[in-house]
Amino acid sequence: MKHQKEISSMATAKIFPNSFAFLLSALLFSLLLLSYACRRAKSNMEYRSQDLQHTHHVLHVNSLLPSAVCNSSTQVSALHKKKSSLQVVHKHGPCSQLHQDKAKKTPRNADTLFQDQARVRYIRSRLAKNSAGSSDMKETDAANLLAKDGSVVGSGDYVVTVGLGSPKKQLSLIFDTGSDITWTQCQPCDGYCYDQMETIFDPSKSSTYSNISCDSALCNSLLSATGNSLDCSLSACVYGIQYGDSSSSVGLFSKERLTLTSTDVFDGFAFGCGQNNQGTFSGAAGLLGLGRDNLSLPSQTARKYNKFFSYCLPSSPSLTGFLTFGKDSGKGSSKSVKFTPLSRAAGLQDSSFYGLDITGISVGGRRLSISASVFTTAGAIIDSGTVITRLPPTAYAALRSAFRQRMSQYPMTDSLSILDTCYDFSNYKSVSIPKISIFFRGNVEVKIIPVGTMYSDTVSQVCLAFAANDDDGEVAIFGNTQQKTLQVVHDGAGRRLGFSAGGCP
Ligand SMILES: *[C@@H]1O[C@H](CO)[C@@H](O)[C@H](O)[C@H]1NC(C)=O
Ligand SMILES: *[C@@H]1O[C@H](CO)[C@@H](O)[C@H](O)[C@H]1NC(C)=O
Ligand SMILES: *[C@@H]1O[C@H](CO)[C@@H](O)[C@H](O)[C@H]1NC(C)=O
Prior knowledge:
Elements: H1 2-55, E1 56-60, H2 73-78, E2 85-90, H3 109-132, H4 141-149, E3 158-164, E4 169-176, E5 183-185, E6 210-211, H5 217-220, H6 222-226, E7 231-233, E8 236-242, E9 248-261, E10 264-278, E11 286-289, H7 297-300, H8 302-305, E12 308-312, E13 321-325, E14 338-341, E15 354-356, E16 358-363, E17 366-367, H9 372-376, E18 380-382, E19 389-391, H10 393-406, E20 412-413, E21 422-423, E22 430-434, E23 436-440, E24 444-448, H11 450-453, E25 454-458, E26 461-464, E27 466-468, E28 476-478, H12 480-483, E29 487-491, E30 496-500
Parallel strand pairs: 4-11, 5-10, 18-28, 19-27
Antiparallel strand pairs: 1-22, 2-3, 2-13, 3-4, 3-9, 5-11, 6-9, 7-8, 8-9, 9-10, 12-13, 12-29, 14-30, 15-18, 16-17, 16-23, 20-21, 21-26, 23-24, 25-26, 29-30
Bound molecules: 2-acetamido-2-deoxy-beta-D-glucopyranose (3 copies).
């Protein structure tokens, strides 16, 4: 017994330090495990935030809102010291001359979006006329819209300043890749002239002005350029053009000296000398037509520029972009441009619009599964005057659902006009927004920047800046919100269109 006791006490004595060591090693082991788990978690977090950077824009909410002052430091740099370059500003932005007129208030977003629907109707009716070869389509649209709205505004959003006549008169014109003829309001304003910032062009004070005769080829080109047949006034050629919002210009189709820059002067430029101008065009003197028809500015200056021009719309109205004619002689910048061929789709190929083939959309780095036929049914165009990109409803539904899924941590709020996916960011300083890319034929990926993805002027209602067409048979439109900061290269002779990121601030 005693012996046994001894053994057991010996055993206890022996076991005790053993169990102590066991406990100690267990503790050490769990500490090790814990620190490993911590490190794992940390690297996981790092991995995830890297992943987030890859698939999302992480940004301050305020960076989505427009600024109220013009950042003039960008005015010089935006010109890139290119010779044939004009400055591009938003018509309502603080960098615009037109903005100085305090009486003209910046329109509310809802009004801008309502106006945008009119722009889309204008595009559809031009395309319908094009394919039907008649003008019986949508003639009532303008009247309907006028009845609903009561006021007319005028197409387009971005303004450039050019010189017209001798001595030259500086005129701020809305630049428009979706129409062809260039026009300005002209004295004596036989019908009507709306208020404009600059004094109205007076052809009688210019030594280089001349009428175009009714039976000239130029005058006969008006039908394809405007969708309206020509008219005559004492054998002088009369043009008329109306836009979808019932804004319009009618007057004498004339020739004049056009001065783009000191080195780029064109004699005998055919333009509309508007005697009856309906709309407000935000106080701009008229419109600069950059379409594909043979009366557009690129066509009339083809001998010098070979229908090559590029532009960049700034990320904010407080910044300036550019419109450059001719191949950029500067080095480097054009290397990063990725080209997609102009669409050969029926109805787009011969229109004055720049047709593109969309091939896909990605959200958060993942390509949406949308059947190719959704995009090829009606095709797409790129337009400087449409604000919000319009997609076939099938494509928009896929985009919206993927976007909403990745934004599920944020509270949604009311729709804003045509925009149905809006968030209230009032309680957030920083947000992460899934990256969106649009793909065009030729595997050209166009990455949309944050202010091109969301549309807002208040943090409590920030909306996905895409909208659906009524049906998949309507043309898709790549709009100007999504084009912000892209250098968009129009190579008319090469029948292709190029994109490069970071073209302007
Ligand atoms: C003006 O724009 C430039 C380029 O985007 C930027 O670096 C600078 O901070 C801006 N200045 C002001 C006063 O906003
Ligand atoms: C434009 O094209 C029409 C035919 O499509 C032609 O009659 C006219 O001469 C052309 N005008 C110019 C300025 O090239
Ligand atoms: C141009 O035509 C209009 C209308 O026929 C006429 O009143 C005007 O005098 C003409 N101007 C010139 C410079 O020929």
